[in-house]
Design a protein that fits this description.
alpha+beta
């Protein structure tokens, strides 16, 4: 969407990022669904001089109508909820469903992203494809030979980071099983006009979309998705622009129950372990190790506070400890 009124009497939002970034396409989908006037600028922010001063140097960067520059998609989504009370909220009305939406959103951002990284840089075919894709967005000034040369060091750096992110060979079965669990869960529910919490999207839907869009393009996970979850594959393509969707919140179906079970068994134990320090934990029979991540500790603290604010009966029903 384009336009001139990101706020009444103001300027449009400007979103800077790249197609290969799941957080960028997640935020772009949110802006589109909310019908907020926005200019989309495909730039790798770390290599774009007008954004060189922005800290942290993360993709995406959203420029608000007042000129403020913000990173980190989750707090940006929260900010948009407060700024635009227009009936197109991405947060379900009931407190239980709202918490579950944020929980699944966080699991997509912080755990499904590890599945993405595992597939993207765990095999040569995928790593070569991804490096060229990312660098093509980042450096549109390069010819084919220069692009290939620039992609090689990027690929090498990302492969070197795999252990830091916990994407080790011993954890590979865990990530591949997690990916299949998410695909299987969504395949029970999503269709044309169907989402996790009814006939309108939530923050959870769009966070899953962001990761799955990339997984659905990278060679190996794309083949898995198309064979295992064809309706989910089609849903992901539609979710890029939901500006024409008008729907209602409804009782969540089997997909939310399955994703909550996965959060109980995998994501919540991981977050608790990370909050205590370096992670070395068994998750569904697989050993997972990574250094302590401060950001993921913040995620856990935020979710704990949201969980504590729920009614006692709702907390018991959700079943997180």
């Amino acid at each position: 969407m384009t336009g001139t009124d990101g706020e009444p009497g103001g300027r449009p939002y400007i979103l800077y990022g790249v197609e290969a970034s799941p957080y960028t396409v997640k935020l772009r989908a949110a802006l589109r669904y909310r019908r907020l006037p926005c200019r989309w600028v495909c730039r790798f922010v770390q290599m774009y001089e007008p954004l060189a001063h922005v800290r942290p140097q993360l993709t995406p960067v959203l420029k608000f109508p007042n000129g403020e520059l913000r990173t980190d998609s989750t707090p940006i989504l929260e900010e948009l909820e407060g700024r635009h009370e227009d009936g197109r909220s991405l947060l379900p009305e009931r407190s239980r469903d709202r918490f579950l939406a944020w929980l699944i959103e966080d699991m997509a951002d912080e755990w499904l992203s590890k599945c993405l990284f595992h597939y993207r840089f765990g095999a040569s075919e995928d790593a070569d494809f991804a490096a060229l894709w990312v660098m093509d967005d980042a450096r549109s000034d390069l010819d084919a030979g220069e692009l290939a040369a620039a992609a090689r060091p990027f690929r090498e750096r990302q492969v070197e980071r795999m252990g830091f992110l916990g994407c080790t060979p011993e954890a590979a079965p865990l990530f591949e099983a997690s990916y299949l669990r998410i695909l299987d869960a969504l395949e029970t529910t999503v269709a044309n006009g169907r989402f996790l919490f009814g006939t309108r999207p939530s923050v959870a839907d769009l966070a899953l979309f962001g990761q799955l869009k990339t997984l659905g393009i990278d060679p190996t996970p794309m083949a898995v998705m198309r064979a295992r979850a064809p309706r989910t594959d089609a849903w992901v393509r539609r979710a890029d622009d939901l500006s024409g969707v008008d729907g209602e919140w409804e009782e969540p179906g089997p997909a939310v129950a399955a994703l909550l079970e996965m959060a109980r068994e995998v994501y919540w134990p991981f977050l608790k372990a990370n909050a205590a320090g370096d992670v070395d934990v068994m998750l569904t029979g697989c050993r997972f190790r990574q250094p302590h991540f401060r950001y993921q500790a913040k995620c856990y603290d935020r979710l704990v506070k949201l969980h504590a604010a729920l009614e006692p009966g709702v907390r018991e029903e959700i079943g997180l400890e």
